[in-house]
Amino acid sequence: MSRFEEDFIFGGATAAFQVEGATKEDGRGPCCWDVHLNRPESKFNGDKASDFYHKYADDLKLSNEFGINGIRISISWSRIIPDGVGTVNEKGVEFYNNVIDECIKNNVEPFVTLHHFDTPLSLFEKGDWLNRETIDEFVRFAKICFESFGDRVNMWATFNEAWAVAQNGYIIGNFPPSIKYDIPKAVQSMHNMMVAHAKVVELYKSMNLKGEIGIVHTLEGKYPITDSDEDKEAANLDYTLSNKFMLDACFKGRYAEDTFETITSILSQNNGELKIYDGDIEVLQAAASHIDFLGMNYYSSHFLKGYKGESNIYHNGSGEKGTSIFALKGIGERVNNPEVETTDWDWPIYPQGLRDMLVRIKNEYPNYKKIYVTENGMGYKDDFMNEKIDDTPRIDYIRRHLDAILQAKNEGVIVKGYFVWSLMDVLSWSNGYNKRYGLFYVDFDNQNRYPKKSAYWFKKVAEIKQLIEASDIDY
Ligand code: BGP
Fold this sequence. Notes:
This protein is of the alpha/beta class. Helix content is 40%, strand content 16%. The chain has a single domain (9-218, 348-472), classed as Glycosidases (TIM Barrel), CATH 3.20.20.80. The longest helix has 24 residues, at 183-206. The chain starts with 8 loop residues before the first strand and ends in an 11-residue tail after the last helix. Bound molecules: 6-O-phosphono-beta-D-galactopyranose. The site of 6-O-phosphono-beta-D-galactopyranose has 15 residues, from loops.
């Protein structure tokens, strides 16, 4: 197969906090990121972001003009329930009603995520996903969203990237609450999020709405840098912690024996243990047979080397190539593979990893129903020249990843759509505004949009359902 089907989704992805701005407008309450990015040491914040709150109609019109037939949006919990637990803010409901109606008007299918990193501040301060109360409040928030928007939204995702929440918040420390090297907290919060996910899937199914519900995971390939046993073990440990633990929860409805053993051993080396509460496994089991799709975010794979030292991580948040360090006690060290190029933020560019991961899901979780690649794209320092942006490296990146999807489809994997991260340039959580991903360039001074060369290329691909080179586009 060298073509995508007629109903394949060629989408663009966004997330509430990264695009909306208007953080204090119309009764929105604060989320954890408002505080995190307004600390004195922070160099940027989300107060304006891409001003989607006011410009959504323009962005959806542009999407339509550029052949984009799907958009990922997320609902800001603290816009709907300002303090996370109390009264509903009707203005917040009205905003998302308007956005969803505008999507439909422009023939852009909304894929709506309930949690994209932005826990309301009050719940975050009480422990975020380490506090089991957050689960109950999340279920209540989900119910309000299903009741308010479920008549028009066909595609729901519970969480975006529980691994990123856990890894970045508790291991790398570049997300709130900025804790480093605490693997036990990361694992416990992932488990609690999986329980919350499962409860929301069960709630949705009990409401007999017409749509589908899934979850979005970030899945990273983990490859040993050599054939040595130590390096293979490091790759397996990183894979289990980052990918397998939560895939098992969502698609097996339990932690498989080898997964559980590996996680328990990682935890014991880090003086921790996982607490599984009564009823957790039952709800995971129920949801595993009801989940409609897997959303897979894929940017990169890692190459692993055995590592016996203390944890040592440096996050490259500035785009200064070659500055990243990632060595995690009890897991391994992510090292440079000289044969694989990287972005300026040191993310290896490895489309083969996307093909491998898709095939692995099909083989290891045969009950998966279908996959959407819900994020993929390249952080790049775009040049803005006479209102034009020639982002050929981004086009090459996207083309190679779409080709990896075609390869996986040829091997029988069911992939129904692909969303470029991001639709327009957005705030990058721990990198700010110079790490651009969009199909549409945003001038953050005046919020004007300018379609990049990649937008024209993507439009053509969506139209002919076939891959072409960047040089096939006049720009
Ligand atoms: C994913 C998130 C997105 C987005 C993307 C790019 O983890 O779901 O919200 O930010 O990664 O990451 P970054 O902005 O760190 O480059």
